[in-house]
Amino acid sequence: MTNATRDGRPPLAVFDLDNTLSDARHRQRFLERTPRDWDAFFAAAPQDAPLPEGVALCLEAARECEIRYLTGRPERCRQDSVDWLAAHGLPEGRIHMRRNDDRRPARLTKLEVLRRIGRSREIRMVVDDDELVCDAVEKAGFPVVRARWALSSEALKEAQEKEGRT
């Protein structure tokens, strides 16, 4: 790796999973009903197709950066997430996930993690599809790449903000 920071460690590139690297559209139907079926939504995640634009950006970033993953998925989805990343040839990297009982909006939980890791590491880029997350992260001074290559439903956007589930 090149471009090591002053402490000799490479900068970080931080990637979201759902609708940034993985195509979650096929499972958004579980959020369009009342009540929302969160168990089915997350259980279907291993069947997500990779999003070529996100995967290419992640692989490109890995040439100069250490990759981290920052997702709104709950901790109980960790093994499925690890397996999905490996199955699609994405770089190994630490995955930051929300606690199973954490229902705060992603714009708060993700910013909290970024501030924590940004105290000791340079964050070169944060890649996310959630506009509210991107706005908050950008306002906090982190460089943002808005993942606008996937379509998400209004139900997913509402769930991200109001129910703090992904």
UniProtKB/TrEMBL annotation:
Domain of life: Bacteria
Source species: Streptomyces coeruleoprunus
Protein's name in the database: Polynucleotide kinase PNKP phosphatase domain-containing protein
All residue ranges annotated as the Polynucleotide kinase PNKP phosphatase domain in the record: 12-145
Short name of one Pfam family: HAD_PNKP
